Amino acid sequence: MDRVWHGSAEAQLDHVPDNWYDTVVAADVLEHLTKPDLVLRALRNKLRRPSAGEAAALAWPHPLVVVSLPNLGFWPESLSKLLDGSWDYEDHGVRVHRCLWESRDVP
Length: 107
Known about the structure:
Layout: H1 9-12, E1 23-27, H2 36-46, H3 52-57, E2 64-68, H4 75-83
Parallel strand pairs: 1-2
């Protein structure tokens, strides 16, 4: 790692070089952003586009954005929290999520 950007993802994307990364991982990040759709679109430009010859030699020739999201629709977890009254709405929990998704919302 040769650089670290500090600040919101939306504000820092202009500092991240275009056509540079083979893979971008957004692990439990998007739900904290104000405009996750804009960030995902901007990330497309950050992914490296290998030449045709280079792509043929790669095991996985396509750039990748890997995303993980919390799934509040996972009913056993949500239901048990609601039934036993342990759904904590604190600053370290659901409250810091600006967007929430269920599995049906994500293609």
